[in-house]
Amino acid sequence: MRGADPRVVLGLYRSRHERRLLTGALDVGVTALDTSTTYLGFRSHQVLARTAGDLLPEFAVSTKVGYFPRPGGAEHSLDPVRLHAAVEQAAEDLGREPDLVFLHNPEHSLREVGPDGQEVLAEACAALDDAASKGLCAAWGIASWEPSALVGLIGPTVPRPATLMVRAGLLVGVGTLDAADALVEVWDLGPSEVWGMSPFGGSTSDSVWGAIDPRVFLGDSCQLSRVQATFLAAYHLPRVGAVAVGTDEPAHLGELVGALVGEVEERTVREYRSLLRDRSRDQPV
Prior knowledge:
Shape: globular
Distance between the termini: 53 Å
CATH topology: TIM Barrel
Helix content: 25-40%
CATH superfamily: NADP-dependent oxidoreductase domain
Order of helices and strands: EHEHHEEEHEHHEEHEHHEHH
Number of domains: 1
CATH architecture: Alpha-Beta Barrel
Strand content: 15-25%
Radius of gyration: 19 Å
């Protein structure tokens, strides 16, 4: 068994929640686990507790609240009462208090509230802050797919999250990268307080990964595979301290952990972001 490495988080978005995946994660040193109330058809917490409840104490467990089941699908809500109850329910279903609870994609509801957005966001964050203060979770954060929707809403009334999770990697647009940087600055978040997600934009088998060679970011670390290089680059686009990645294969997880021995050239990252910004200016309005 390898030593624990907090820089890799096993995400369960598309996972089958099999016990062998969790034991395999522990074998390669992955001891952080990320899920959501909405994963696995709103059954993720119960399935984890049933199939691997004895293993959960070995993990730092994060989950997300904000989506709620309704007939025929799901709905999003930032209602403070519902959010607080969801954190309480998560702890009950998991059989333990989560180490971290994210407010899941608050922009989903904020698009519809207009000028009241800052007040609505502040109340939602306050509900999670209160849940943490009552011991329902150890800490809370914000997980945002489109962080640009939040930038103009952050003010003194919005509590500071312990962790921010945003998309990371070579397929992330410059607008998202800049928005993530802006939130990190306004909340004064350190590198360990920022997580990346979806480093492969959905799948390592997408055709884009055969068309480019991300090892150009690595300089002398080109002995890594393209998959490893893609994963390693995600820690710099934007700069994050941990990356949540989904898989059902422990061997794939081990390959990604092995990528962490490499080093990314900061100069190449800066040049890449500059190219992204130039390209965005050239796009038709």
